Amino acid sequence: MTLEHLPVESVLLVAAGLMVIGVLIVGASDRLGVPAALLSLGIGILFGSDVLGLVNVSDMAMVRDISVIALMIILFEGGLTTKPSVLRESGVPGFVLANIGVLVSAGVVAAGVQLLFDTGWETALIIGAVVASTDAAVVFDVVRRTPIPKRLAGILEVESGVNDPFAILLTIGLIEVTRSNPGVEDWLMFGARQLFGGVAVGLLGGWVGTRLLRFRLRSSGLYPLLALAIAGLTFAVASYIGSSGFLAVYICGLMIGALAPRHRRVVRSFHASLANGADIALFLLLGLLVFPAELPGVAVEALAVSAILLLLGRPLAVVLAMLPFRVSWKEMTFLSWAGLRGALPIVLATFPATAGVAAGDTIFNLVFFVVLVSALLQGTTVAPLAKRLDLAVDRPAWQSIADAVELEDVDIDLIEIEVTDDLALVGTRLGTNPPPDGMLITTMIRDHKATIPNSDTVFASGDFLIVAVNSGRDRVREVTAWARGEITGTADVEAG
Q1: Apex CA 345: angle with CA 341 and CA 348, to 5°?
Q2: CA distance 119 to 182
Q3: Among residues 385, 283, 396, 332, which one has the least CA distance to residue 40?
C-alpha cells in the first residue's frame, strides 16, 4: 500500500500499528544491547516496499518535512533537559567541536571520496558535508544510557545540539554550487544568518517562553502544550528569516529548562515522552523510505566513507578541537568514537535528492548505509569502550537524585528522591538521620505502597521519598547532599 494515497483512517491504522510495534521493540533496546535508532530503522525497512511490501513511502520531500519536525521536537527536549552546570563546564569545548568537527570531517571525507572513486569534487564535497555532523537523536539516547563523566556527556550533547547550522550551511551551499556560482560574500551572509540569527531567535524565544510559562493557566497540562507551541514558533521564525531553526529551538529549550521556575517537571516529562515518540517515528519513516535492494550497489563506497570518517575525519577533528582544553587521550578516544551519525545526515541527504542533483539518489543511499554502519558499529560499542578506557562510572556524581516539583503561589515545594544502593541514606533510621531544618518527609513509596514514615522507618534501596521544603534556597542540592551523607540532620547535630 502507498501511504501517501491512503484514506486518513488507513493512514492512522498503519501509523499507529507501526508505532506500537516500534515502542515495544525499541523499549527492549537496552536488554538487547542494540541502539534504539537501529531497531526503528530495521522495523521501517522490514515493513517497507523492498521486504514485506506492506507500506510504500516514496515522497522524499514529505519525509524530509516530517523529519524536520521530529528533529525540532528532539532538539527542544534536549535543551530542556541539559543542566546549566553542564553548559558552564562543557559549552565552549562542545561548541568548538561542533564547528571544527563538521568542517574537518567534511573535508577529510570529501578528499577521500574524490581520491578513491573520482566522483567529481562537487559530489564528493556534498557527501562530506552531509555525513559530517553528529546526530542529536542518537547521541542524546546513547549518552543517557552510558554512565560517563559529566564533562564528556556535556561535550557530546552540546556538539550534537549546535552542529546542525554548519552542516546545513555546507550542504545547501554546495548544492547551490551545482546550480549557480555563489561568491564568498554569499557564503558569509548565509553562514551569518544561520548562526547568529539562530542564536538571536533562540534567545528571544526562550526569554518570551519563560515569561509566558509563568502565567496562571486553568490546568497544569496546558503548560507542556504552551512550551511546544513556543518551540514551534521559535523554529518557524528562525527558518522564515533564513536562520537555523534547529539551533534556535535548542537554545530556546536550554533557556526554558533553566529559567522557567514553575511546571518545569510536567513540561520536561511531557516532552521526554514526545521526543521518544518523535525519535521512533523518525527512524521508522526513514526506514520506510529507503529501498534496501539499492544499498548493495553503494556498499563499497559506503564502507569506505565510514572508514574514512571513523578512523581519520572524526579523530582528527576531535584532536584539533580539544587541543585548547584539558582533555586526556582517553577522553579524546572516547569522543572520537562516540560521534554517532543518525537521522540528521539522512535528512540532509534528502536535500540533494529533492534539489535535482544528478547523483542525489546515490548520495541518499550511500549516506543511509553510512548511518547503518555507525548505529551498528559505534552504537553497540560505546558503552564497552567507556569501560575499557576506565571512563565509565557506576552512577555519575553529577546526576541528580532529586527533582523539584514546584507548587504555585505558596512558599513550599516538593522534592522527589529515588533511593539507590549508592546512597548513605540506605540502612539508616529516620529518627537518627532526619533531613535538615526546613524539610519534612511527607510520603514514602515502597513496593507500590505509599506510607507516612515515622522515626522508626529504615530507608531501603528502591524507596521513593517525597520531601516538603521551604522555597527560596537551593533545596534540591541540600536534599541530595543529605541523602548522600554529606550533611546531617538536626537529630545528629543535637546528639553530637
Answers
A1: 170
A2: 22
A3: 283
- Condensed to tens digits (0 to 9), the pLDDT of residues 338-348 reads 888 888 888 88
Superfamily of domain 402-495: Regulator of K+ conductance, C-terminal domain (3.30.70.1450)
Q: Looking at residue 327, what DSSP letter applies?
A: -
CA 387, 390, 393, 398: dihedral to nearest 10 degrees?
-130
d(CA 366, CA 369): 5
Query: Residue 466 class from Cβ within 10 Å (0-12 exposed, 13-18 middle, 19+ buried)?
Result: middle
Specify the pTM.
0.71
Q: Buried (b) or exposed (e) across 401-423, using 16+ Cβ within 10 A?
A: bbbbebeeeeeebbbbbbbeeeb
Cα(436)–Cα(477) distance, integer angstroms:
12
- Listed by start position, the domains of the chain span 3-388, 402-495
- Phi, psi dihedral angles at 451 (to 5 degrees): -135, 165
Residues 165-179 as b/e (b if ≥16 CB within 10 A, e otherwise) read: bbbbbbbbbbbeebe
> Is the CATH number 3.40.50.970 carried by domain 3-388?
no
Rg of the chain (C-alpha set) = 24
DSSP, collapsed to helix, strand or coil, labels residue 243 as coil
d(CA 139, CA 137): 6
Q: Which of 164, 159, 149, 163 is nearest to 91 (CA)?
A: 159
How far apart CA 135 and CA 310 sit, in angstroms, is 15
Grid coordinates 519525509 are at which residue?
A: 63
Burial of 218 (0-12, 13-18, 19+ CB in 10 A): exposed
Spatial distance between the Cα atoms of 378 and 391, rounded to a whole number of angstroms: 16
pLDDT, tens digit, 9 for 90 and up, residues 427-471: 899 888 888 888 888 888 888 788 899 989 999 988 888 888 876
Angstrom distances, CA of residue 87 to CA of 45, 91, 95, 200, 352: 37, 4, 10, 18, 34
